Amino acid sequence: MRNLFAFLTRHNHWFVFLALEVISVILLFQYNSYQASVWFSSANEVAGKVYEANSWVETFFSLRQVNKELTQRNLELEQQMVAMQELLTRAKHDSTDVARTQKQALEGFKLYPARVVSNSLDKKDNFITIDKGWADGVKKDMGVACGSGVVGVVYLVSRNYSVVIPILNSHSNISCMIKGRGYFGYLHWNGGDPGIAYVDDVPRHARFKLGMNVVTSGYSSIFPPGVLVGKILHVFNSPNGLSYRLQVKLATDFGRLRDVCVIDNAGMEERLEMMRAVQDSLKVKRE
């Protein structure tokens, strides 16, 4: 013990120097937005490498279950595609219309496959890190989905990694609608159960049933219309009594999320910009 005190006394100036350095660095990054952003991007790059290595280990032990789920999902999609082709052929009496319709539905969409290297579920503001960045074509505000449904929106991009704000984040705000009904609202997560979220501002005159699917509305440049969000579990009145609040069982299992796709919806963004330009010109004419 005496030797320890002697050592601390003899080298106390080094400890004071290190303490001052730590305090100065904290103050620098906390009160300067530019330095903070540079630090966050660099730290995200390093952390991404660590998370990626850890993710590879976890993925190796879960490949059997993942392959089983993918096989089942592909079979379901093939059955749905065959049924859709039969219905469209009967309605149009022309098989070429089926191929044309499918081609048109995919126009303007690019999908960038990515792997989740970091994910959290137990915080108020959860984040996901994926192994694709601006070098792969990923940009901020692109939508992210998986084979089951919506995941979130790209928030921050570095060269090889991106941070995603998932549905399980208090800042997430995704425009949704009730499939087949057209009534829309905004998806929010209030913490707690990672499998439950809420759609607010659904109009009081809306007609729907429990168990109906909730999908993306397509009213933004982030997600195309029709991407599955979840199913309606329960209906509440809003606090002011002017609208409904829907409790939704999310289609995406965030606890087992591994592979995702980033959606580059450039075509829809161009159409929305054109619509906004038309609205602005109409406002000018009225004034």
Automatic annotation (TrEMBL):
GO cellular component labels: plasma membrane
Query: Which intervals of the chain form a coiled coil?
Result: 67-94
Q: Where are the transmembrane segments?
A: 12-31
Keyword list, A-Z: Cell shape, Coiled coil, Membrane, Transmembrane, Transmembrane helix
Q: Which residues form the Rod shape-determining protein MreC beta-barrel core domain?
A: 116-263
Q: Which InterPro entries match?
A: Cell/Rod_1, Cell/Rod_MreC_2, MreC, MreC_beta-barrel_core
> Gene3D superfamilies this protein is in?
Rod shape-determining protein MreC, domain 1, Rod shape-determining protein MreC, domain 2
**Record GO biological process:** regulation of cell shape
UniProt record similarity statement: Belongs to the MreC family.
This one is known as Cell shape-determining protein MreC
Q: Which organism is it from?
A: Hoylesella loescheii DSM 19665 = JCM 12249 = ATCC 15930
